[in-house]
Backbone:
């Protein structure tokens, strides 16, 4: 009998679990919000992830339940666990990926390095934070943000009046003076065994991950050790099972501080499909099934991943591919099978090699043809 | 709109087209003989590939039709071509992969290197061939053979009396004194553009491919050039589109002679999934869609693929995997999602590295745990 993994959410993360599921002989079932989503090739149930009854019915047919996104309500996850289906990451761990305020409180208790932050419940709270941080703050809604949504840089409390009047507590963070953004991914089994990929550099545009360089240039040694220690501590203390992504700032004064957490395969790990012996998608499936983890070495000295965003009026896939493939025969292409909309992530490309400038050039060139 | 590729046959070759189809945003549709076959995750129609009406209906929904096996009757393929759906490889090319006698006649006309052979229509024909070849011959049915079936070594005409009385012409070949078996794979687009992988060594057991070493040890230079020239000539002269596998004997007197042809992804190319920049499955999809071909370089100096055969009483997949994965974290596993039967190909493993002895050891060890 094949083991069966259920994934809540039918986006590109679920889609990219299909190839390793095929290779490992795992049956992948997806609970999607509508037909024709990115992962629709998997055995798909259409349903509402907020509805406990629908999720319970879906979960009854799988050996373990996991996620393509972090938006499933805690009470729904609790109901699945109570019904006897393992859920990884578990509800207690996932809470800290769902709620940024709880995450800051928990990581502070663990004395892990973070930006200055404060819980904001009123304009007075925010004014006090601004006053002590040079009249600038990154303000975040505790829940529901992603890809730059739910995040705002403010200089006065007035600029947050809409969020403040909504009555939900907010998170204020200092505007970190950073040199670059890094991400450390780790996979962890229920037994506690872990495997880390090398720390990577993540280049953001408009709050969205645009490019990833693996490993992060110049990170060997101190930076890599710091990033690994932080990710391993979080995975262990929060009892994360599956892939954990820790987004980090490398500050101008040479510290690493924790920016965000995700408890699932993450955009900063897409390079692993082509660049590592074991991809984050294969490793996530292995981890949630409590199978031994694969090796995480790099296939080439450098891997560069570039996201492909929907263009204004893209032609047929084959026409765009023909140009991209013709010009970049060594680059690997990944389509998310989505309708193209300006700014929407519709795929990514990965180039590998031993000359970083050349690898960056090939990945960017392929991405431009592909997304044109 | 995604391009749609239809595959006749739902076995492991169709299954292994799923991951690159997902990556490239290609919709894969499979015409399978029954439900639950190896490639059942693809959009599957159950039907009979011998029935022109059923194949025509299937072909009407795809942009191009290709194959997981070579058993589709010529008249069925001709009907699809007449109805306007491109079929690759085309019926004229495929004929030479379907009929070994026609293949020998055609390659002889092209003056390509082959074992001595003869068309056998009677006991007298066979006696004459035996007499001139040391009273030994490899006798083959012209059609329907695979994995050692339809092949027999005979020393007297009596040993072939059943086949001779069936009334179909047979192919007799000299028993080649060979040092080892090689295979050369090439992919070709309708435009004629080609890409070759390096020539590999194929180790057979009981007439079935057991292991593949890529590239074939010591093949750089003369052997590689000879193999490439032969495969390119066949691909061009027979107008093959898609992947062509040419199985070769390296004789004890240092010649290469052609053993068999296959016009689809082939067991001797499974190593390319993990060992080459572009796998044979991705390349086959690119070729039949007339998309530019990918680079075919090796990711590591050596790749070794070992087939996994069904064992006597295999336990749960997760138990077998746990052992195999635990011990060989760098090996890549490929399950065909099949019920295990003794001797049945149920998967394969691939190891990569720069020390051939170590790579062979890891691949064999992983295969033994996996198949136990």
Residues:
């Amino acid at each position: 009998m094949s083991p069966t993994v259920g994934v809540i959410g039918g986006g590109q993360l679920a889609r990219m679990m299909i190839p390793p599921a095929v290779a490992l002989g795992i049956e992948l079932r997806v609970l999607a919000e509508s037909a024709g989503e990115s992962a629709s090739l998997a055995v798909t149930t259409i349903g509402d992830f907020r509805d406990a009854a629908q999720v319970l019915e879906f979960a009854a047919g799988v050996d373990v339940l996991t996620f393509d996104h972090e938006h499933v309500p805690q009470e729904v996850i609790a109901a699945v666990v109570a019904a006897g289906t393992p859920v990884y990451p578990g509800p207690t761990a996932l809470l800290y990926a769902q709620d940024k305020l709880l995450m800051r409180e928990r990581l502070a208790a663990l004395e892990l390095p973070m930006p200055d932050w404060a819980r904001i419940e009123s304009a007075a709270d925010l004014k006090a934070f601004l006053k002590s941080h040079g009249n600038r703050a990154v303000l975040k809604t505790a829940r529901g943000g992603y890809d730059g949504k739910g995040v705002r840089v403010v200089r006065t409390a007035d600029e947050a009046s809409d969020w403040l009047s909504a009555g939900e507590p907010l998170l204020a963070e200092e505007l970190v003076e950073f040199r670059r953004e890094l991400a450390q991914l780790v996979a962890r089994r229920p037994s506690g065994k872990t495997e880390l990929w090398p720390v990577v550099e993540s280049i953001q545009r408009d709050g969205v991950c645009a490019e990833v360089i693996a490993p992060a240039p110049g990170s060997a040694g101190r930076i890599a050790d710091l990033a690994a220690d932080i990710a391993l501590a979080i995975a262990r203390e929060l009892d994360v099972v599956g892939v954990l992504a820790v987004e980090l700032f490398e500050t101008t004064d040479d510290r690493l501080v924790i920016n965000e957490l995700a408890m699932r395969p993450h955009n900063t790990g897409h390079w692993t499909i082509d660049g590592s012996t074991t991809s984050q998608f294969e490793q996530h499936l292995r981890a949630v099934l409590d199978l031994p983890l694969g090796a995480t070495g790099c296939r080439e000295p450098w891997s560069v991943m570039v996201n492909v965003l929907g263009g204004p009026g893209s032609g047929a896939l084959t026409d765009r591919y023909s140009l991209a493939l013709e010009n970049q025969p060594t680059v690997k292409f990944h389509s998310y099978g989505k309708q193209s909309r300006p700014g929407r992530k519709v795929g990514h490309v990965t180039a590998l090699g031993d000359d970083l400038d050349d690898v960056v050039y090939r990945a960017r060139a392929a991405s431009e043809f592909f997304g044109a």
User: Anything to note?
Assistant: Chain B has a mean pLDDT of 93. Chain B has 13 helices and 17 strands. The domain at 178-371 of chain B is CATH 3.30.470.20 (D-amino Acid Aminotransferase; Chain A, domain 1). The CA atoms of residues 4 and 63 of chain B lie 5 Å apart.
